[in-house]
Amino acid sequence: MNIDLLHTELTFRTSRSSGSGGQHVNKVETRVELLFDVDASVFLSPDQKKRIREKLRHRITREGILLLDNSETRSQHRNKELVIAQFDQLIKEALRPEKQRKKIPRARQTDPKKRLEQKRRHSEKKAFRGKVRI
User: Fold this and answer.
1) Count: domains in the chain
2) Which of the residues 16, 47, 104, 121 has the least number of beta carbons within 10 Å of its own beta carbon?
3) pTM as predicted
């Protein structure tokens, strides 16, 4: 899956950023919001869309729009680059297949007689360490 193809489906909104900046912050819209309609994407398969909706459900609105924002820097251009990088990272992680867990046989399941024998020997060894009764 080439994530660069998804960049053509991204929409951006800008707004005034909060925080320091003096008069500059009151004049310039540096905060960037990234909007991505997961269900309307033509580059994602239905399975990939489902995975993204499950993994990123806390960031997706009821309408199925993935919403990210960034206002770290005073530059709108830099904030746009940062939010795109964040989007790329989230999509890569959401689409990464999970590793299948391998079941390991437990000692008790393999040979219960052997385990009980070891337990008995260990108990006898400990009993010899006690006080000697005459």
Assistant:
1) 1
2) 104
3) 0.69
Q: Residue 23 sits in which domain range?
A: 3-95
Asked if 83 contacts 69 with a C-beta cutoff of 8 angstroms, the reply is: yes
Whether the CB-CB separation of 82 and 70 falls below 8 Å is answered with: yes
Supply the DSSP string of 47-83, one letter for each residue: HHHHHHHHHTTTTB-TTSEEEEEE-SSS-HHHHHHHH
Judge whether 122 lies within some domain: no
Residue 51 tokens, joined: 């995975």
Q: What is the CATH number of the domain that holds 24?
A: 3.30.160.20
CA distance 31 to 76: 6
